[in-house]
Amino acid sequence: MGFNCGIVGLPNVGKSALFNALTATEAAEATKYPFSTREPNVGRVAVPDERLEVCARLAKSVRIVPTQLEFVDIAGLVRGASKGQGLGNQFLGHLREVDAIAHIVRCFEDENVAHVEGSVDPIRDIQTVETELMLADLDSLERRAAAAQKRARGGDREAKLQLELMEPALAALRDGRPARAAAVPAGRRSELSALQLLTAKPVLYIANVDEEAAASGTAASRGVADYAAAQGSQTVVISAAIEAELAVLGDPGERREFLAALGLGETGLDRVIKAGYALLDLITFLTAGPKEARAWTIPRGTKAPQAARVIHSDFEKGFIRVETISYEDFVACGGEQGAKDAGRMRLEGADYVVRDGDIMHFRFNV
After folding, report:
1. CA 8, chain centre distance (Å)
2. What is the pLDDT along the chain (366 residues), one digit of tens a residue?
3. CB neighbours of residue 266 within 10 Å
């Protein structure tokens, strides 16, 4: 099951540098000039989870396999992107395919790095990008709503149901608000994603500061945090330049020393990954045995058979039950056998809603 997050922003705000540091590659071309990224770059990154290493140690696993998120580096958007400026239509099309948006905002001054607007103003930059996304949604949705209205007048029940989502989304967009702010009918908010609206996607704001401000942030990054909070979103402050340096340090000890010297407890990238995971409302369940300890990604609220499908479709088809141990019990009892001996292993059926950190062993018959 794949989950991905699109990295967006104006040109030259640090998107490609962030992507390269996230994925420890040089797949994305980072330059000082706009529109250097023409095709989306895709990379998968491990989600940091200390529980996995603990489980592997207790289960004496030969290898550890973390769960992952996919990040997509979308080329810089500019004013007029919704009308095709800066290859905007092409880039917006790529963005419709992602599950969430990581909006990176430039909060640093550097006369050697050009800014498409001529000056650094994070809130203006955010609003420029978000306006283009709203205009693109409005144009797309007005055309689709007109077609749905015709079908609805002809008695098409599906079209009527679609209009119940489209009309409040259109009202929000016409009022200058993102589609995620639409007053959709109770119990149908999850269906909004089926419309593939750019502004219905959850957003994480990433304030890119210079190296000196990585630990403390700046007035500009605090302004971004205030803006994000007003939108019901969150902010992560990073220095893409520092993350690029960390990406080439292979030794964990060197990385810790480098971070400590800068007054940082963990990398900005770890915080971005964790925040992206939380943004998508995902949880992790674990499997642990002699061969491997592995983390698996599922949406919060997933039931046991659907969680089993993440491992293999046959597990869902032939699902019988699942043996489940909470992470806390697994650790407290010294592993699987200890948890069984202490009566802390539970047998759960098809209605069981998986909890974050569950260690699971599926029983199935195909």
Report:
1. 12
2. 457 888 888 888 888 888 888 776 444 444 444 444 456 678 888 888 999 999 999 999 999 999 988 888 876 665 654 554 444 455 677 788 888 999 999 998 887 776 777 788 999 999 999 998 999 899 999 999 999 999 999 999 999 999 999 999 999 999 999 999 999 887 888 888 888 899 999 999 999 999 899 888 999 999 999 999 998 899 999 998 888 888 888 788 888 898 888 888 888 888 888 888 888 889 999 999 999 999 999 999 999 999 999 999 999 999 999 999 999 999 999 999 999 999 999 999 999 999 999 999 999 987
3. 12
CA neighbours closer than 13 Å in the CB half-sphere of residue 190: 6
Start-end of H helices in 154-297: 157-174, 219-230, 240-247, 252-261, 268-279
Contact 34, 116 (CB under 8 A): yes
Angle between helix 15-23 and 240-247 (nearest 10)? 30
Name the one residue in this structure whose structure tokens are 């998120």: 69
Q: What are phi and psi of 204, to 5 degrees?
A: -115, 130
In this structure, what are the phi and psi dihedrals at residue 37, rounded to the nearest 5 degrees? -95, 115
Query: How far is Cα of residue 39 from the mean position of the Cα atoms in its chain?
Result: 20
**In this structure, what token pair is assigned to residue 341?**
């001996």
| Length of the chain as a residue count | 366
- Written as six digits, the tokens of 364 are 């199935």
| Pair 73, 101: CB distance under 8 Å | no
Pairing of strands 68-73, 282-288: unpaired
Asked whether 276 and 44 are in contact (CB, 8 A), the reply is: no
